[in-house]
Amino acid sequence: MFFKKQQSLAPDRIKKETTDDKELIPVSKDEFISIMKQRLQDGADFKTKELANGFTLVFLDTLTDKKMLNKDILARLGGISATPDEALKSITVSSTSKQKYIEDGVDAILKGAVLVHSAGYPVIISAVVATQENRSLTKPETESQVMGPQIAFNESLATNISLLRRFLTNANLCNESFTVGKQTNSAVALLYLKDIADEEMVDRMRERIQGIEIDSVMDSSNLSQLIEDNSMGIFPQMLLTERPDRACSWLLNGKLVVLVDGSVQVIGAPQSFMEFFESMEDQNVRWQIATFLRLLRMFSMVVSVFFTPIYVAALTLHYEIIPQTLLVPLGESRSRVPFPPIIEALLLETMIELLREAAARLPTKVGQTMGIVGGIVVGTAAVDAGFTSNILIIIINVSALSSFTSPNYMMGNVIRILRFPLIILAGFWGFYGLMFGFCFLLIHLIRQSSLGSPFLAPFYPPRFADWRDSIIRLPIGWTNYRPAQTRPLDRKKYRARKTKQ
C-alpha cells in the first residue's frame, strides 16, 4: 500500500455554485427576518434590531463586537434616510459590501458581520464587526531555538498572514483565499512569490485545495494529508512549521505556503526528505557547526532505526559477527532471559513507547517526573527479574534518544514506528530480512514525490549544485542558488562574488 498514488483531481470535477440557484433578498422586512431565522435555525444568539428610520439589523450576538456595533453602525445609521446607499456611505467599518443573495448574507453573518436591511430594497449591507479573540503571540513550542526570532504563529489567519508580510515586505507576495469544509467553511490561504514560484506548481496546489470535498478541516495537519501526493505512505511529504521565519525562507526559495484559520502551523511544499532534519537555527550559526549538527541528526536517524534490529539479527542468526571479547558479557547478560531476542526487543520497545505516550498526555510537571522515574524503575526491575539484559537496555535507550534528535515531530514518529517491522524482519531472517526492509524503504522513498517534485532531491535525481545546502551547509556566499526542486522562475538569489567580497 506504500506505492499507491493518490489520484489527481481534474478541474472539470470541481463543482461551482451558480447564481441561478441562489435566493434573492426579499424587499419585505418581515420576510427577510423570517428567512434569516430559518437559515440560522433560530439560534439563541440570533438578534434583530429595528431602527426608527426603517433600518433592520440582523446579527449573531456571540460573533459581533458590541463596541464596534454601537460606535460604527448604530450611531451612524440613526439620522439618515433608510436606503442602502446611504447606509454604505455612513458606516465606518472598513469591511462593508452589498449583498443581493440570501446565501451570501448567511456566509457574512457567520463570519461576524451585521446585515443592514432597508424595507423596499432587494439588497442588504454587510459590515464585519467580528470579535477579535486571539491568543497573544508567544515563543515557538515545538521548534524552539537559541538564535533567531522568538515568535510563533497563533490561531488567527489574519495575524499569521500579517506576520509573513512583516517578515517579507514584498509586493509580489500573492495571497489567494479558499473555503474548505462543507460544515466548517474553514478559511484557507495560499501564499507564494509571483516572480519566483513556478506557475505549474501553483496551479497544482490550487486545484488540490479546490478539489477537496470533506465536512471539516480543523487543522493544517489534516489539510496536508488531503493534498499530499501519496496519502497511503508513512513518510510525510509536506512540512509543518510554527515559525514565520522558516515560512518566509520557503517563500524565498520558490515554495508554496498554505495557512488554515484556527491552526498554529502552516504547510510548506514541495519538500525533500533532508529538509525534515534541518532546523532554522542552522542558518544562524557558523557553517561548520550547522554541517556537524545535520550530519549528527542523519547519523542519529540511522542509529535509531537500525541499532536494535542489528542486535536482534546478530544474536538470533549471526553470532559469527560478534567479537569474541563481547561474547562472554553477552552470554552472561542473557543467561537469565527466558525470551528470544526478538521478543525481548519488542517488549522493551513497547515499554518505551508506553512511557513516552503516557508522559506526553500527562501535565508537563507530572509527565516529566513520570517519564524519568518510570524509565529507571521499569528498566531496573526488568533486568533484576530476568526479563531482559543490561546490554539491550542500553541499546534501546540509545535508539530512543536518537529518535528525539529530529527537529520535526512527524518524522520523529515515523522513525520510532519503523523500528518495529525491522525488528520483526531481523528476528525471522537476520541480516537478509534487515536488508530486505532497507531496500523496501529506499524504493519507497525513491518513488515518493512532494507536489510533483522528487522527495529524495537533491540525491535522487542527483543535483550536485544543491548539495551545498542539504546534508551539509556551506558558507552563505556559496548558497546563492535556489533549489532546483521547486523549479523557480528566478534561480539565482544574489551574486556570490559580491557577497564574498
UniProtKB/TrEMBL annotation:
InterPro entries: Spore_Ger, UPF0353/GerABKA_families
Protein name: Spore germination protein
Species, as recorded: Mesobacillus stamsii
Key words, A-Z: Membrane, Transmembrane, Transmembrane helix
Family, as annotated: Belongs to the GerABKA family.
Transmembrane spans: 295-317, 376-400, 420-443
Pfam families: GerA
Membrane topology summary: Multi-pass membrane protein
Compartments in which it is found: Cell membrane; Membrane
PANTHER family the UniProt entry points to: LEUCINE ZIPPER PROTEIN 4, SPORE GERMINATION PROTEIN
